[in-house]
Design goal:
With about 325 residues, the protein is of the alpha/beta class. The protein is about 40% helix and about 20% strand. The two termini are about 35 Å apart.
């Protein structure tokens, strides 16, 4: 297969120093990227200024979106990309020097591969990053449990069900008209939009792979929406649960959906969320008020996802 043309897309909002680090890393790649798309909002001049500084260093395009959210930004990048392969990363990540070379080589070697992901080394405030090796990565069980742990990958390349948004690439021909689902909730990060897109490809029978040697350094930065990393927000929690539940309802079979909803209402959606019984168990640990907030938000999220799912596929 001839050399693929590689586009890298970075949605960015009000994180100019992080974006500068990301673009610097892309300018230093062993294999030159063919196209870089930064997707920004018009009311974010600091991001525009950073992009201007890199026009002579990278084959760079600046695209604008009118609506907030990761879904709109990624879809704009997918609609305007010229590459055969579109690699997505975040503005608070810095790809390693061999990142683009490895992505391009694997897609060239495996023409049936639709998507490819890698590890993100999550850096903490103390300068260290998360260590470990998770036994299962990027898989979704028939009953709705999602195994992420992409930041703890090790070992050989393997086929998976889902990739992580900070380090994932797709063959444009495999995506076709498929885009991120506009039914997902949130005004910024829109959690699980990456899971939703990956599972939509898996429903079509297309292959996704994870290779832990494809590395980015990830420096989780401040978010400018209701979904804050270090504090609880009831609306963000409800949106989070709506999105993961919707992604799984579209993906699972009838038996899996039944188990998912039953478990979600009683214990929470898999992956540590809160349902009625779990909320009661959490009373001694986080207090009645906070347990009740999580239980109500979780229930609302599950019920809203069911309503969205019944309304039809995006």
């Amino acid at each position: 297969m001839p050399d693929v043309k590689l586009t890298v897309a970075i949605p960015s909002y009000r994180r100019p120093n992080d974006l500068r680090r990301a673009l610097t890393a892309l300018a230093s790649q062993d294999r030159q990227v063919d196209e870089v798309i930064v997707v920004a909002r018009r009311d974010d001049p600091a991001t525009h200024e950073v992009v201007q500084d890199f026009f002579t260093l990278l084959p760079l395009k600046l695209q604008f979106v009118e609506r907030p959210g990761m879904v709109e930004a990624v879809n704009r990048a997918l609609d305007t990309a010229d590459g055969d392969v579109i690699a997505l990363t975040d503005d608070d990540a810095a790809p390693h020097k061999d990142w683009t070379a490895k992505i391009a080589a694997i897609f060239e070697q495996q023409p049936d591969l639709a998507g490819l992901g890698g590890r993100d080394r999550i850096h903490r405030d103390n300068g260290a990053w998360d260590e470990g090796a998770a036994p299962v990565i990027g898989m979704v069980r028939w009953y709705g449990r999602v195994f992420g742990y992409h930041h703890l990958g090790s070992g050989p390349r393997r086929d998976v069900d889902c990739l992580k948004g900070v380090n994932m690439s797709f063959r444009r021909a495999a995506l076709g008209v498929l885009r991120m689902d506009e039914r997902l909730r949130g005004t910024g990060a829109q959690c699980h939009c990456d899971l939703k897109l990956c599972l939509a490809l898996r429903v079509q029978g297309k292959r996704l792979a994870y290779d832990p040697s494809i590395l980015v350094d990830h420096f989780p930065a401040q978010r400018y929406d209701e979904d804050q990393r270090a504090s609880f927000n009831e609306l963000a929690y409800e949106n989070d649960i709506h999105n993961i539940t919707l992604a799984l309802l579209d993906y699972l079979g009838p038996a899996g959906r039944l188990v998912l909803i039953s478990h979600a209402l009683l214990f929470g959606v898999w992956n540590g969320y809160c349902g009625l019984l779990k909320g009661l168990l959490w009373w001694p640990r986080i207090g009645v008020r906070h347990s009740w907030q999580r239980t109500i938000a979780s229930t609302r999220g599950v019920c809203a996802a069911l309503k969205t799912w019944r309304s039809g596929v995006s």
